[in-house]
TetR family transcriptional regulator (Nonomuraea fuscirosea), 204 residues
Amino acid sequence: MTDMRSPTEARPSEARNRLLSTATRLFYTEGIHSVGIDRIVMEAQVTRATLYRHFTGKEELVLAYLNEADRALRGQAEEVIAAGLPPADTIRAISASIAQGIQSPGFRGCAFLNAAAEYPDPESPVHQAVLAHRQWFLDTVTEQLARIQKPGAEAAARHFVMMRDGAMAAGCLFDPDLICETLLHGSERLLEVYTATGEQNPAS
């Protein structure tokens, strides 16, 4: 996912930071469509003119919100990968990071899945931003699994992403501890089966 900030946004200001942090909190906790510009302006304690100096409109503010979420998640993954663990342990660490997020206070599901539900049009820039983030995550998991064995890596990664999606959706509806336990167990089982498949086919 590329940095969607305009040249104006590339020069951070206190007002812009307040606008983005306010929008992030409201969009994530209450939903994007249910939060209007007036509410964001009021809670960020800025004027409409200030908002439009930094963002062309609500859609650009939504894209900035998703861009920040994307950066945070990429940073977490990069930190795990930089630790230089064996690939299976890297997948376990990514799973643990997801579980930690689900168990955090105020968890309301995946910001990207939530945004996709509100912007179903495939041509929408917001929907495209969601797809770009998800492609990055799939590619990241695929790359780690391919370090174990290349055949079947993408299929196994899609399985992992589906488990992650299910856990993120269920984590704010049911007991998050049980959801995380299920996710971690499922991830471990996926690794066991995937690794065993490679051992049974040494030529791969």
